[in-house]
Amino acid sequence: MNIFRLAGDMTHLASVLVLLLKIHTIKSCAGVSLKTQELYALVFATRYLDIFTDFISLYNTVMKLIFLGSSFSIVWYIRRHKIVRRSYDKDQDTFRHYFLVLPCLLLALVIHEKFTFREVMWAFSLYLEAVAILPQLVLLQRTRNIDNLTGQYVFLLGAYRALYILNWIYRYFTEPHFVHWITWIAGLVQTLLYADFFYYYFESWKNNVKLQLPA
Amino acid sequence: IEPTSEKDEL
Predict the structure, then answer these.
(1) Of the given ranges (A2-6, A9-13, A92-96, A142-146), which has the lowest mean pLDDT?
(2) Residue B2 reports pLDDT greater than 50
(3) Long-range contacts of A156-161, Cβ-Cβ distance < 8 Å, separation of 24 or more
(4) Looking at the partner chain, which of A60, A67, A174 has a beta carbon nearest the beta carbon of B8?
(5) Up-side HSE of residue A154: CA atoms within 13 Å toward CB?
(6) Which residues, at least 6 apart from A90, have a Cβ–Cβ distance to it below 8 Å?
(7) ipTM score of the complex?
(8) CA of residue A58 relative to chain centroid, distance
(9) Is A9 near chain B, with CB under 8 Å?
(10) What is the distance between the alpha carbons of residues A57 and A38, in angstroms, rounded to a whole number?
(11) d(CA A164, CA A154)
């Protein structure tokens, strides 16, 4: 474990907890894309298949349980909670996320580390995580209102992935055989997707104006 | 250094 990875995990934890707390306290999910949350729940479900078979560390297991629990809770709140679900604008959150799932699944069937169910699911979860934010970014551009919690959520998610890239660089130089091309490329693509959001986020923060994404 | 098992990242 290195400082970049710990910071990345804490930032990732903060992003899901910020969102869960927002939805739980103000009983509203305005501005939140259910599609992105469903994709993230799928990412964790396919990524953490080994949670009960491979014990790596207490930290690893606890964090996996938190990520699984929080992502499925957020989906439950938006779909089932009698008050929260009313604030979900489904006619704006129309990104056809199946168009993301299928290509990621096909890609995972072609490019993976080993052709086993676990490895294909693991590669699928990495490809899906790279694009899972798209419905949320599209929704932000459509509704143009970025309330600061949703903006923070996207910002923290981007920061977590950027910190992970530093972690991979650090591990590459400190651990002789640490090479995971699939993880690195998927992580880089994901971070680049956030790059333009970061630009507008910092611009609005610097000029102290409300964050406006170009249509 | 901890043994870098295959998938030790989240």
Answers:
(1) A142-146
(2) no
(3) A156/A11, A156/A12, A156/A14, A156/A15, A156/A18, A157/A12, A157/A15, A157/A133, A157/A194, A158/A191, A158/A194, A158/A197, A158/A198, A159/A11, A160/A8, A160/A9, A160/A11, A160/A12, A160/A15, A161/A8, A161/A187, A161/A190, A161/A191, A161/A194
(4) A60
(5) 32
(6) A34
(7) 0.82
(8) 22
(9) yes
(10) 27
(11) 16
SS3 A48: coil
Q: Are A182 and A112 in contact (CB under 8 A)?
A: yes
Distance CA A138, CA A92 (A): 9
Angle, CA of A29, A33 and A34, to the nearest 5°: 85
Report d(CA A208, CA A204) in Å as an integer. 6
Q: Name every chain A residue with its beta carbon within 8 A of the beta carbon of B5.
A: 54, 56
Is there a contact between A197 and A139 (Cβ–Cβ < 8 Å)? Answer: no
CA-based nearest residue in chain A for residue B9: A60
Q: Are A56 and A2 in contact (CB under 8 A)?
A: no
